[in-house]
Design goal:
Blueprint lengths: L11 H11 L8 E3 L7 E6 L3 E6 L7 H12 L6 E2 L4 E3 L9 E5 L13 H16 L21 H11 L5 H13 L7 E3 L8 E4 L2 E5 L6 E3 L7 H4 L4 H10 L6 H23 L4 H16 L1
Parallel strand pairs: 4-9
Antiparallel strand pairs: 1-2, 2-3, 3-6, 5-6, 7-10, 8-9
Keywords: Kinase, Transferase
InterPro entries: AGP_Transferase, Aminoglycoside_PTrfase, Kinase-like_dom_sf
GO molecular function, one term: kinase activity
């Protein structure tokens, strides 16, 4: 089964043609399958030093342009590398979306709990640095995007809890969700990554090296970036990340409650959709829900 019903499939041959047509300076570089992509992109190596990101689905079609606009502004102010595009490609060769060429960043996506407290501190410091960047002129999140007021997701979350059935503790999840809704809203909006999951982090030698996949970037509720405590860390690592990442917030306890809500938004809504399409991801979502409920 395809990950999405209307997924657009990319191949090395397609990427080779697009690169040769639009970026002839790279036409002689080999194109090979890259690391496994997430929900939104197929990834391909372009030579040894570059990565091509090909959207799988229409909801990801604006990311190449967004990355090219905002990541150069953010990157110089952050302590880890970003997947800043070197070039943005146009639709062509039968491919309907814009796509991007980024540098190949060293490191590998860490497994949950694999990183130590030093990396937990690193990521906490990254979150603080990101929300310290001036938001003037930044893209304010809207609709039901990550970082908007949680109440906008109320119906979707409650529906997903019901659809999940016995795949989670529905009453407990509903209680945590309602506590998140009752928390005071953020005192002010800030820059957020919006999806600090293991696949969007790179590490080498036990230290974080880069933060990638900025499809949810925007200016919104900073609590949305607290989800890393449940997606990436365990035990003492969680305590360290929480202490560092909430430092300076005027409402740390309310932000934590909203952070739990944001984790439910991502994990609960994903469960019914990916249960048969991507069982491994659905299992990870179950584990994240359980971690939030145990917190």
């Amino acid at each position: 089964m395809s990950l999405h019903d209307d997924e657009v499939v990319s191949t090395p041959e397609l990427v080779q043609r697009l690169v040769a047509d639009q970026f002839p300076r790279w036409a002689d570089l080999p194109v090979t399958p890259g690391p496994a992509g997430g929900t939104d992109h197929h990834l391909f190596r372009l030579g040894d030093d570059r990565l091509v990101r090909m959207p799988k689905i229409s909801w990801a079609q604006e990311q190449a342009v967004s990355d090219a606009r905002w990541l150069p502004r953010l990157a110089p102010q952050l302590p880890l590398r970003l997947s800043t595009p070197e070039a943005v490609g146009e639709p062509g060769q039968g491919f309907p979306f814009r796509w991007s060429v980024t540098p190949w960043l060293a490191g590998a996506s860490p497994a949950v709990g694999e990183l130590g407290t030093g990396a937990a501190r690193q990521l906490g410091e990254f979150v603080v640095a990101l929300r310290s960047v001036s938001t003037e002129g930044g893209p304010v999140v809207s609709g039901t995007s990550r970082g908007v007021p949680l109440a906008r997701l109320d119906g979707a979350v409650r529906t997903a809890i019901t659809e999940a059935g016995n795949r989670m503790d529905g009453p407990a999840a509903t209680k945590v969700w309602e506590l998140a809704l009752d928390a005071r809203p953020a005192a002010e909006a800030a820059w957020i990554h919006g999806d600090l999951a293991p696949g969007n982090l790179l590490a080498d030698g036990g230290r974080l090296t880069a933060v990638i996949d900025w499809g949810a970037v925007g200016v919104g509720d900073p609590a949305a970036d607290l989800i890393a405590v449940w997606t990436q860390f365990r035990g003492e690592q969680r305590d360290v990340f929480r202490a560092v990442a909430t430092d300076g917030l005027t409402d740390p306890d309310d932000a934590w409650a909203r952070g739990r809500g944001w984790m439910l938004v991502q994990a609960v809504i994903a469960l019914p959709y990916y249960w048969d399409r991507w069982p491994e991801f659905a299992l990870a979502c179950q584990e994240r829900v359980a971690a939030v409920l145990a917190d």
